[in-house]
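User: quick one, fold this
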Amino acid sequence: MHPSLLKRKIIHVDMDAFYAAVEVRDNPTLAGKPVVIGGSPQSRAVVCTSSYEARKFGIRSAMSCAQAYRLCPNAVFLSPNFEKYSQVSHQIREIFSRYTELIEPLSLDEAFLDVTDNRSGLYAAQIGKAIQAAVTEELNLSCSVGVAPNKLVAKIASDYRKPAGLTVVAPEKVAAFMSTLEVRKIFGVGPATEKRLNAIGIKSCTDILQIPLITLEEHLGSFAHWIYTAAQGIDERRVHTSRERKSLGREETFSKDLTSLPHLLDELKALADKTAHDLQNRKITGRTLTLKVKYGDFHQITRSQTLRYSANHEDTLFEAARKLLLEKTEAGQRRIRLLGLSVSNLEKAEESAWDNSAALLD
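Assistant:
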């Protein structure tokens, strides 16, 4: 047995249809109805999540609300209330903190917990059950829990018996558990990678182990090593209690496709102002600016520029973004449905003020 399967006790908690469940809890008249969180089906909103009743109609996250409406005209469509969801998320994390300080939030509705040396003295499975009971009794919500020797297996396990499931994979059971899984269950394997693997006869984790690593490398490059070890249920990643933000930005989907350059520049200026405000509030600056453009036919591109100096001023961000829009995209020639602006290569802002305009490249 691989050494990494003996050391740690990891729990992955995943809330069940979180946003929708919070709305149903707060409005009991929605109970039993197909609920879609995203926005009006008459808008360009996309589905954030949906209740299990709605999922029976084929409604999934990232689907347009218009398409969700076609699948289920009787569904209740609600705009997301992220402030409320964030407040509930903090309540959930308070429950986690009763058992361990080693908590790695992945989003508002899921987190990893390292309970190897927990303050309660309970077994990991007992902690998982206790968390589920507290979430139900105190918050009137449900969650699914996976317990395993590492993050990879715990996350897969939490999805195994949704909703409200508890799946425990003991160290000696990891290999057998992984062998039954389709390759798409491995973290990092998206539709494109799955298609490439299927093309060489790989559909399950067992199939991966039948092929020499060097052959996998020919098809997947450096990703081959991860997928080969993951198929065995091996994962050395630790639970990180703080996740360093890698980028920060805003985006806007327009109610109607835009072709007017003045209108597009106005929207871009608003995005630059909001992004700069977010950076300044967090007292951070960024060195790389990325513009995202989604055309009317849903084709999406990104264009980036590295600034001479790290910056967080709205005028600096807008000027760099304006240049990218006018010189590196087909703005004014093709219909645009979405603009996005993000800043990466972040660092703490200097205490002394300086002229952000110097950040632009010549």
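User: anything notable?
Assistant: The first helix runs from residue 4 to 7.
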